[in-house]
Amino acid sequence: MTDFDDMGTRIVSAEVLVSSPGRNFVTLRLRTADGVTGLGDATVNGRELAVVSYLQDHVTPLLIGRDAHAIEDTWQYLYRGAYWRRGPITMAAIAAVDTALWDIKAKMAGMPLYQLLGGRSRRGCLTYGHASGAELPELFDSIRAHLDQGYRAIRIQTGVPGLGSVYGVASSANAVVGGSGASARYDHEPARRAAVPVEEEWDTRAYLRHAPSVFEAVRNEFGPELPLLHDAHHRLTPIQAAKLGKELEPYDLFWLEDVTPAENTAVLRRVREHTTTPLAIGEVFNTIWDYRELFEEQLIDYVRSPVTHAGGITALRRIFDYAAVYQIKSGVHGPTDISPVGLAAALHLGVAIPNFGIQEYMKHTEDTDQVFRPTYSFTDGLLAPSDEPGLGVDHDDAEADRHPYTRAYLPVNRLKLDGSMHDW
Ligand code: KDG
Ligand code: MG
């Protein structure tokens, strides 16, 4: 569609911004002839420059001259038009364009984005924070500190006896990023930045023996009410996942996340047959199609897709509407590698949709917030978008220039037994 009634809404520039204020981020900024700008997050952790190329070499040239108001048509143009549909790089690129266009449209309307998505349905988005510790005393300290900060739901990850560092558990090595206790961070940048991925070791049987005892101890210490979550990071077979879900039932989890690898969702039938522990999945899914049998067979309870990796606000809204038919709720992925732009987009959707469940929240570093200047606020465990027009996030180019891209990876996971690569 190149027939513009209002030439002022034409896209005249599309910039791909790469920076590393604490960790790497890829951001798309679109500008209209009238000078309205919009931002979109295109960060794919550990594969950032692939999205930069996808956008710069294949997408941004197509955007110049298009009507910024034509959000749905642009989405279909980039998705159907590519022929090579789906996949994390394609869908992150489309997500960035879509999010930036929604930001522009809301700014043009002079409204916070959630108003264009149907208006506010709740005061804010209930979040869960990340408590962790190699041993129980550190874990308990971390839970207490999160409660003091206002969190009302907590994800629990711990070390496993006999294993070294375990992903998801803040260690002294990365405590330097955010201090110790509650604010220690487990995400592996920049404390464990390296030219090649850090290698961790894994033993599923040791993990399965240990995990239920951790939740028993936490329930004994903190009582029955606190919503508790846990992430198995795709590491289990269907029967192991079923066993874990069953053994965690007495501790009444809010959810058990990513129990099996994402490629074969049909195995969740087996898990579901055996346990009533609620299941969450989807942080590495890219499209609505990935959820089809999971929704229709009622195999999961929460959708983990973020705006950033599932094709943007347009696509994620569609996924949530489809999920609502089956009483399945949102549980949007919100680690620090989702930029403040991606998080703000999730919050605008989160306050608007009828089937909001919970929002993952791990605070970004101060350096990150100085680049993006987010205006969302965290009060009493609820994260809420501001009433500024658009997403309520900016991009300070001068600040970003102080933090150049540095190649960095997620760790990899090898079996302690023989060093073979394992799922995660
Ligand atoms: O980039 C992916 C990581 O941030 C991911 O491992 C985090 O599993 C994760 C989670 O639930 O936040
Ligand atoms: Mg996860």
Short description:
By secondary structure, the chain is an alpha/beta fold. It has two domains: 7-112, Enolase-like, N-terminal domain (Enolase-like, domain 1), CATH 3.30.390.10; 125-390, Enolase-like C-terminal domain (TIM Barrel).
Please render the helix and strand layout as text.
Elements: E1 11-19, E2 25-32, E3 37-41, H1 48-63, H2 71-79, H3 88-109, H4 113-116, E4 125-133, H5 136-149, E5 154-158, H6 172-178, E6 199-202, H7 204-222, E7 228-231, H8 238-248, E8 255-257, H9 268-274, E9 279-281, H10 292-296, E10 302-303, H11 312-324, E11 329-332, H12 340-352, E12 358-360, H13 366-372, E13 377-379, E14 382-384, H14 397-401, E15 412-415
Parallel strand pairs: 4-5, 4-12, 5-7, 6-15, 7-8, 8-9, 9-10, 10-11, 11-12
Antiparallel strand pairs: 1-2, 2-3, 4-14, 13-14
Bound molecules: 2-keto-3-deoxygluconate and magnesium ion.
Structure description:
With 424 residues, this protein is of the alpha/beta class. It folds into two domains: 7-112, 2-Layer Sandwich (Enolase-like, domain 1), CATH 3.30.390; 125-390, Enolase-like C-terminal domain (TIM Barrel, Alpha-Beta Barrel). Helix content is 36%, strand content 16%. The chain contains 14 helices and 15 strands. The protein has helices at residues 48-63, 71-79, 88-109, 113-116, 136-149, 172-178, 204-222, 238-248, 268-274, 292-296, 312-324, 340-352, 366-372, 397-401; strands spanning 11-19, 25-32, 37-41, 125-133, 154-158, 199-202, 228-231, 255-257, 279-281, 302-303, 329-332, 358-360, 377-379, 382-384, 412-415. Strands 4-5-7-8-9-10-11-12 form an eight-stranded parallel barrel, surrounded by four helices. Helix 1 crosses helix 3 (88-109) and helix 3 packs across helix 11 (312-324). The longest helix has 22 residues, at 88-109. It is globular, with a radius of gyration of 21 Å. Mean pLDDT is 94; it is low at 173-181. The structure holds 2-keto-3-deoxygluconate (KDG) and magnesium ion (MG). Magnesium ion binds next to loops.
